[in-house]
Amino acid sequence: MLQNINRYLISHWTQPLVSVEFLKKNLNQVKIIDGSWYLPSQNRNADQEYLKEHIPGAIRFDIDQVSLKETTSPTYVTPCQII
After folding, report:
1. Which phi and psi (to 5°) does residue 57 adopt?
2. For residues 58 and 28, is the Cβ–Cβ distance under 8 A?
3. Cα 40 off chain centre by
4. Which DSSP state fits 3?
5. Which listed site, 5, 23, 28, 37, has its alpha carbon 20 to 30 Å from 15?
6. What pLDDT score does 58 carry?
């Protein structure tokens, strides 16, 4: 079942939520959160990329700051009660 959910998310959430035109017109009315994250094998640094270039007014969300450190899974997020 989890594989089906992952396939659905990947196939449906790869498109932008809004268009560039919408964002340009409404930038002062929305909050942009850059949650970029990469696997270690990708040799990319989301924090450095954000500092180099991001949408004006966007804030950076580092998922590693709220992830459990006691797990071997690189994508395990801390339960909301702990945050």
Report:
1. 85, -10
2. no
3. 15
4. H
5. 28
6. 93
